[in-house]
Amino acid sequence: MILAFDGSSIDGSTYTDVVDLAHRSPGWVDDVVSAWSTYGLAVFAALMAVAWWRARRLSPVAAVAALAVPVIVVAAFGVNDVLKLLVREDRPCQSLQVITLEACPAPGDWSFPSNHTAIAAAAAMALLLVSRRLGAVAAVAACAMAASRVWVGAHYPHDVAAGVIIGALVAALAMLTLRRRPDSLVRWITGTRLRPLVLAS
Q1: I want to staple 101 with a disulfide (CB 3.0 to 4.6 A). Which of 50, 106, 152, 192 is the partner?
Q2: Residue 120: which of 53, 52, 46 has the closest Cα?
Q3: Sign of CA dihedral 107, 12, 142, 88
C-alpha cells in the first residue's frame, strides 16, 4: 500500500461543488472544457513560437529571451514534478470517490501540484516578460487551464493554485536571471549552428 496525503480536508467541499456543477452543465460545455483541459497546452506552444518569430526580428537579445521560454517551462515542470513526488497527494477522485469528466488516474499518479497548471503559468509568466500582448493572452489561457483541471475533476483547487505559484515563480526567477547576462548567451549562440535562431535573415 502506498502512503499518500489526503487533501480533501483542505477544499474538498469546493471541489465537489465544482464537479457537481460540471455534471449539471450542458454537454457541450463539458466537451469544450474537457478538450481545453486535454489539448490546451498546445496553445502555449503556439504562443511561444509566435513570440520567438517576432523577437527574432527585433534583436538577438530578444530572440534569446524568447528561445528561453520553452526551456523555462520544462524547468518549471521538473520542479513541480519533484514536489509531486515529495507531497504524494492522492487524486481527489480517489479520496472522495466521485465520478468525474476525466477518467480517474491510477493510484500513484499524484495530484499536488497540478502539472498542467504549472506549465501554463510558467509559459504565461515567461511570455509576459518577452511580449506583454502575448503574455496577457497566455495569462488568460493559464487561468482557463487552472479552472478546467478542477472542472474535469483532475485536481483540487489548492492543487491548481500551487501550480500557478510554482510555475510563475520559477519562470520569473529564470527570466530575471537570464536578463542579467543576455549578451554572453547571444555571443555563444551566434557562434554555433543555432545562429539562425537568433538572427533574422
Answers
A1: 152
A2: 46
A3: negative
Q: What is the pLDDT of residues 29-55, one digit of tens each?
A: 999 999 999 999 999 999 999 998 888
For the whole model, what pTM was predicted? 0.88
C-alpha cell at 110: 499524484
Nearest Cα to Cα of residue 52 among 69, 66, 73: 66
The model's pLDDT over 59-72, given as tens digits with 9 standing for 90+, comes to: 777 778 888 899 99
Tell whether omega for the bond before 70 is within 30 degrees of 0, i.e. cis.
no
Q: What is the pLDDT of residue 180?
A: 78
Q: List 5's β-bridge partners, or say none.
A: 89
Please classify residue 46 by burial: count the beta carbons closer than 10 Å to its beta carbon, then call 0-12 exposed, 13-18 middle and 19+ buried: exposed
In this model, does residue 186 exceed pLDDT 70? no
Distance, CA of 161 to chain centre: 11
d(CA 72, CA 3): 32
**Residue 38 to residues 90, 91, 151, 152, 190: CA-CA distances in angstroms?**
20, 17, 12, 10, 37
Crossing angle of the two packed helices 8-24 and 132-151, in degrees rounded to 10:
90
Structure confidence at residue 39 (pLDDT): 95
The dihedral of CA 98, 104, 156, 4: what is its sign? Answer: positive
Inter-residue contact 107 to 94 (CB < 8 Å): yes
